[in-house]
Amino acid sequence: MATKNTCSNCWKEPTLCVCAMIPQIKTRTRLLVLQHPQEARNQWGTARLLTLSVPGSVHRVGLSWPSLAKVMGSPVQASRWGVLFLGTLKQYKPVPEAPGLYPLNGKKLPKLEGLVLLDGNWKQSKTLWWRNPWLLRLHRLVLNSQAPSLYTPLRRQPRKACLSTIEAAAECFSFLGESEQTSAALKQLFASFIDLANHRRQGALDSHPSGEMVPAAPELLSNTDHGNNSRSA
Ligand SMILES: [Zn+2]
Q1: How many Å lie between the centroid of ligand 1 and the Cα of residue 177?
Q2: Terminus of the chain with fewer CB atoms < 10 Å: N or C?
Q3: How far is the CA of 223 from the centre of ligand 1 (A)?
């Protein structure tokens, strides 16, 4: 969320501002990111980078909304939308080995009009899930991504192979048939952000070699749990 100390556009502190690097990517799939308020204050979060890169995408910070149409501000067919499911691939039987985006009902991935991502750590995302029962009307999707996250060691991952929100979106877009450039541009932006963050972190370590003053901020311990065999949203 923007504060007086952050960029009003990307919500990052000045040293992490990525506005100059944000691509403009046209996608056929509409995108909605519902972000837990606590995650919106997290400097390492990527939801804002994602939604700024995809014009027309909708980014909402809060806990609950009355319906998909209300949050999108236009009529939508919920049955043609998917939500990245808060669960693990173990709930999907048989467990798909190939990387892909799979509907939890075991059917073939339908042609989707839009995708919802829940942004927050596991607990926050679960809160968003339960407070928005209309999500149950959407196709619940699980992502089996074999791409390793660039997040480590910036944010500690509770389980192996968790992806950031922007990485999860890049993977989903690719499995939803968006162009390769879409996925590549999102991953490139994320890599640039990580470079910036690592640079800042290194600067902090150099000024405080003992590491005592380096903010091992609580947000470093939280995680946006998008992932692989351990998906959340
Ligand atoms: Zn900015």
Answers
A1: 30
A2: N
A3: 22
Residue (of 27, 18, 72, 52) closest to 193 by Cα position: 18
Separation of alpha carbons 37 and 119, rounded Å? 9
Tokens 């351990």 identify what position?
230
- What global pTM score does this model have? 0.83
Instruction: Give 173-188 pLDDT, tens digit per residue.
Output: 999 999 999 999 999 9
What is the whole-number distance in angstroms between the Cα of residue 16 and the centre of ligand 1? 8
DSSP letters, 134-171, are GGGGSEEEEEE--PPPS-TTTS--SSTT-B-HHHHHHH
Radius of gyration of the chain (CA): 17
Res. 143: pLDDT tops 50: yes
- Domain boundaries along the sequence of the chain: 28-68+126-200+218-233
For strands 114-119 and 81-84, give the pairing: parallel
Neighbours of 127 (CB within 10 A): 16
State in Å: Cα 77 to ligand 1 middle.
34
Cα(169) to centroid(ligand 1), Å: 20
